[in-house]
Write a structure and sequence with these properties.
The complex is a heterodimer of chains A (115) and B (111). Chain A is an all-beta fold and 115 residues long. Chain A is built from no helices and eleven strands. Chain B starts with a strand and ends with a strand. The chains are: A mainly beta (115), B mainly beta (111). At the A-B interface, strand 5, strand 9 and strand 10 of A face strand 5 and strand 6 of B.
């Protein structure tokens, strides 16, 4: 089985530019999570979806961040405009009630640097 | 509130040394407990889990026991290898999908 697939793996962009991160969850998983990891704040949950519907977006830092899940196999996290403090690793993860112990499975992350 | 506290790193050990990484938690209800591992440049991978008190999770020589009386889930390994060098995250899950992660403990094993 393919795992959670994220793209791009690495992104360097200039401040003010739009950044779009993409995620393909594991087939059959109906929960999808976006996390952000920084040295200062550790791993933070930004938003999660169930059956393509956003359930909890309380972790989204501000209006510059938005996430969508147009179908069961694709999600995006968009930052517009980007700022240097958005530099972090962004992880997508997925799960389902059928996954062993409701375990969440992480992608390899998108490493974002905003200069 | 719900929280996870794990020992700060980095932890530096020689190969074949005994490893303990402490993790304690605060939670309402009865959480499930997890250890995830993150190798350099990769995402988090589930290492082991325990879903109820006194359960012992184990994998790849690592083990941890869910201790309700001390609200702890310490990670142990009897003999570490260089390949175990990574960041280890303790986590709890409340309900179905609300995960709370610790800040991570970096382990460095020297040959």
């Amino acid at each position: 089985d393919a795992g959670v697939i994220q793209s791009p793996r690495h992104e360097v962009t200039e401040m003010g530019q739009e950044v779009t991160l993409r995620c393909k969850p594991i087939s059959g998983h109906d929960y999808l999570f976006w996390y952000r990891q920084t040295m200062m704040r550790g791993l933070e949950l930004l938003i999660y979806f169930n059956n393509n519907v956003p359930i909890d977006d309380s972790g989204m830092p501000e209006d510059r961040f938005s996430a969508k899940m147009p179908n069961a196999s694709f999600s995006t996290l968009k930052i517009q405009p980007s700022e240097p403090r958005d530099s972090a690793v962004y992880f997508c993860a997925s799960s389902s009630p059928g996954a062993v112990g409701n375990t969440i499975y992480f992608g390899e992350g998108s490493w974002l640097t905003v200069v | 509130g719900n929280s996870v506290t794990q020992m700060e790193g980095p932890v530096t050990l020689s190969e074949e040394a005994f490893l303990t990484i402490n993790c304690t938690y605060t939670a309402t209800g009865y959480p499930s407990l997890f250890w995830y591992v993150q190798y350099p440049g990769e995402g988090l991978q589930l290492l082991l889990k325990a879903t109820k008190a006194d359960d012992k999770g184990s994998n790849k020589g690592f083990e941890a026991t869910y201790r309700k009386e001390t609200t702890s889930f310490h990670l142990e390994k009897g003999s570490v290898q260089v390949s175990d060098s990574a960041v280890y995250f303790c986590a709890l899950r409340i309900g179905t999908y609300k995960y709370i992660f610790g800040t991570g403990t970096r382990l460095k094993v020297l040959a």
